[in-house]
Amino acid sequence: MTTERDVTPTYEGRAYARPEEELVDQGLRFDIGTLLSRRGVLVAGAGAAALGLAACSDSGGSADSDSGTAASAEDLAEIPEETAGPYPGDGSNGPDVLEQSGVVRSDIRASFGDSTTAAEGVGLDIELTLYDMANDNARYAGAAVYLWHCNRDGEYSMYSEAIANENYLRGVQVADADGTVRFTSVFPGCYDGRWPHLHFEVYPDADSITDSANAIATSQIALPQDACDAVYAEEGYEQSVENLANVSLETDGIFSDDGGASQLPSVSGDVTAGYAIALPVGVDTGTEAGGGAAGGGMPEGGGPGGTPPGGGESTG
User: Which Gene Ontology MF annotations are present (predicted)?
Assistant: First the structure.
C-alpha cells in the first residue's frame, strides 16, 4: 500500500512543507530549518561558519569581503535606533519579503522567485559584526540580519513603480560563530534629501524574522563620502551627483544628530574592483528597540526625508 510518507518528497531527510511545489518554493520556515540543520553547532549555541542553502542559493557567488574583520569593538556603542523608512518590505506596511522562500541569501543583487532581474551598479560587499552588549559584548552568533537598500536610481524594489515586481537588494543572513554576516550587493544611489545609506534589522534568531515586531534593533549605515564621490562619477549614477551635493551627514534627517559617527563603516576598494565596507554593530537587548516604523528614529524636529524616484515621499 502506498502511503503519504512514500510519496512525499524530501530534502536532506526533511519532508517538503509543500509537497506539490518545487524545492525553491517550500517557504521561509522550511529554508530556515534547512539552514539550521546544516549548522547544528549553531543550534547548540556555539555557532558555525555560514553555509548556503540549496533551496535559496546565491545567484552570484560568495560575498567574502576584502576588508577583513570589522573594526575593533573597543569603545563600542549601541547602534542608534533609526526608522526602517516607508519601504522596509518586512510586512509592517504591506509587502513582505521575509515570508518568501529564497530571502536567506548572501548575494542580494538579483531578484528571486518569479524574477531573476539583477540590479546594476558598482559592486559592494557588506560585512556587519554583531556584538551582544547585554552579554559583555560577546559576538552575537545566531542573530539574524535583514538588510535592504535602494538601487542606483534611488528606487526600492517591491515599492517604486518601475521595480514593484522585483525583490532584489533585500536579503537575510544568520551570524556565524564570530557574529558576522556578509552580503554581496551594488552601491546604492543618492536620492533627493537623503545621504546614501543602507537599512538593516537585527533579530535574535532565524525563527524570529517572519515577524517584523520581533526586531531587536533597526538602524542604517551611512556610506563614506569618498566612496560615494568616486562611484557617482561612473555611468549610471549621474542623478546621484546633484543629489549628493545638496545633502551632508550634518543635514541628513537621520544622521545629523552625530554625523553618523557610529554608522560609518570602514571602506576599501575602488570602482573597478568594487568596494567593501565593514561595521561593528552593538546590540543591547536590555534597551527598548525604538526604530522600525516610518518616521521612527528621526531627530527632534524632523529633517529632510527625500523622495526616491517613483517611490513617493520618504522618511528614511
Answer: ferric iron binding; oxidoreductase activity, acting on single donors with incorporation of molecular oxygen, incorporation of two atoms of oxygen
1 inside domain: no
Phi first, then psi: what are they for 25, rounded to 5°? -115, 30
DSSP 80: P
Task: Decide if 148 contacts 88 (C-beta within 8 A).
Answer: yes
* CB-based contact 204:45 (threshold 8 Å): no
pLDDT tens profile 264-296:
999 999 999 999 999 999 999 888 776 655 443
Segments forming the whole domain that contains residue 198: 61-283
Domains in the chain, number: 1
Q: How far apart are CA 25 and CA 105, in angstroms?
A: 15
Residue 188, in any domain of the structure? yes
Q: Kindly report, residue by residue over 231-251, the tens digit of the pLDDT.
A: 999 999 999 999 999 999 999
Q: Is 171 helix (H, G, I), strand (E, B) or coil?
A: strand
Residue 53 lies in a domain: no
By CB atoms closer than 10 A (0-12, 13-18, 19+), residue 240 is buried
Domain assignment of residue 170, yes or no: yes
85 with 314: CB under 8 angstroms? yes
Cα(33)–Cα(116) distance, integer angstroms: 24
